[in-house]
Amino acid sequence: MLEFAMKDLGPLHYFLGIRVRRTPRGFFLSQEQYAEEILQRAGMVQCKTATTPVDTLPKVAADAGAPVADPSEYRSLAGALQYLTMTRPDLAYAVQQVCLHMHDPRDGHLAIIKRILRYVRGTTSSGLLLYSSSPLDIVAYSDADWEGCPDTRRSTSGYCVYLGGALADLHAS
User: Fold this and answer.
1) What is the pLDDT at residue 75?
2) How many beta carbons lie within 10 A of that of residue 71, not counting itself?
3) Which of 100, 117, 131, 151 sits between 20 and 30 A of 30, alpha carbons compared?
4) What is the tally of structural domains in the chain?
5) Are both 91 and 150 inside the same structural domain?
6) Are 20 and 30 found together in one domain?
7) How far is CA 97 from the centre of its chain?
8) Same domain as 110, residue 140
9) How many other CB atoms sit within 10 Å of the CB of residue 88?
10) For residue range 13-52, what is the model confidence (pLDDT) as tens digits?
11) What SS3 state is found at 14?
């Protein structure tokens, strides 16, 4: 028979690259150190900042520009940015757009990653605040992009549902 002993390690401060700070309003989650590591890996520590993660111009087509010199570096940066969205929902749309082209990344797609990194450079201290208490109201939002893909002309839609102040996970298990 196996015996397990539990040990109280005290309040949570850091877990899986996510810093946890207790505030009077709740828990503030951030990945500031992880964001700095991504910028360093990309060679963009001293880059100029951007005010938004994406440009307002139309989406980049799948065959925009020449293939990138190192597709594995592109995939590595895109994957790192994808993990950063855990505490940075403001990056989710932009990162999703670059992840669509992981199979055949082009120069135009790499430019989008660099734009996201320039935005991250100016917002490394941003994070996610989980409120300690809120009413249990249910609020839902949805949006659609009619024929928004320049290659397939497919539409994109999405939704999110909040239970109280938290985004509810609606995936079936």
Assistant:
1) 96
2) 16
3) 100
4) 2
5) no
6) yes
7) 11
8) no
9) 24
10) 998 989 999 998 888 999 999 999 999 999 999 999 999 9
11) strand
